Amino acid sequence: MKALIAVLLWLMVPLAAWATPAASIVQPIEIDMADKAALRDGASTFVGYCMGCHGARFQRYQRVADDLGIPYEQMLKTLAPAGASIADHMETRLQPADATAWFGAEVPDLTLVARVRGTDWLYAYLRGFHADPARPWGVNNIVYPNVGMPNVLESLQGRQVLDCPEASAAQPCTRLRVIPGTGSLDAQQFDDKVRNLVAFLAYSADPVKARSQQIGLYVLLYLALLVILAYLLKREYWKDVG
Question: Could you tell me how far CA 211 lies from the centroid of its own chain?
């Protein structure tokens, strides 16, 4: 038995060593799915900065407008492309052939990316781009090395660079700094912008989550009341026994 435990611990060492860097980069974040103002800002950022290449083809403009409290006229004017119908899916106009020519592969749809990757990973990824002249788009990412896309949020964040003079192949750099004056937002504003974008992606992946959480609270309150009533009923039944 001791030998088996020793073997299992030995096998776990490489896994732990591999997982530690990612764990130090990807940290938990709080997402408020009930904050419609944040979700509307995230939707605007998605359309303005992501939808040129990525779509959300399982989502409709009408559903987003209804859920986030956006008038249809405003939705079509500010968030939908010219000529779109309110019932259209949120699809990118980038053609697969063009995507393959520019990026070497088809660009993934982002409707369910928050389910696949998780909100913590997305937040760290969107904040993890840095300058790398060796890469085709001039950037790399500490969360997803050798990333194949440009940093579409660089105009907001600014030009971010690695800040580890002592880094090596054995111990990659995970500390970043933004060159002052290169972005339109300060650090807190950019973090809030990314958080709102991630919140919208989380909503897109599960549009009824906020409602489900609300219903879940009512169910828990109902069960608590039911337990109290069941206890009182039990006590009434057994008060004359014994």
Answer: 19
Q: Architecture of domain 23-207 in CATH?
A: Orthogonal Bundle (1.10)
Q: Is 130 annotated as a binding residue?
A: no
Phi, psi of 159 (to 5 degrees): -80, 115
- pLDDT-above-90 percentage for the chain: 73
Lowest mean pLDDT among 97-106, 147-156, 165-174: 165-174
Q: Please report the sign of the dihedral spanned by the C-alpha atoms of residue 203, residue 36, residue 85, residue 103.
A: negative
Q: In terms of DSSP H, where are the helices of the chain?
A: 2-25, 36-45, 61-68, 72-78, 96-103, 113-117, 119-126, 154-157, 187-205, 209-238
Distances (CA, A) of 106 to 55, 100, 154, 234: 12, 5, 22, 63
Q: How many CB atoms lie within 10 A of CB 198?
A: 28
173 is in an annotated binding site: no
Task: Convert the pLDDT of each residue in 220-232 to its tens digit.
Answer: 999 999 999 999 9
DSSP state of 179: P
Residue pair 45/195 in contact by the 8 Å Cβ criterion: no
The amino acid that residue 118 corresponds to is G
Three-class DSSP category at 34: coil
DSSP bridge partners of 160: 178
Q: What is the pLDDT of residue 18?
A: 36
Distance, in Å, from the CA atom of 237 to the CA atom of 242, rounded to the nearest integer, reads 12
Average the pLDDT over 121-143 and give the result.
Answer: 97
- Do the annotations mark residue 53 as ligand-binding? yes
| Structure confidence by residue, pLDDT tens digits, 198-220 | 999 999 999 988 788 788 889 99
Measured CA to CA, the distance from residue 192 to residue 185 in angstroms comes to 10
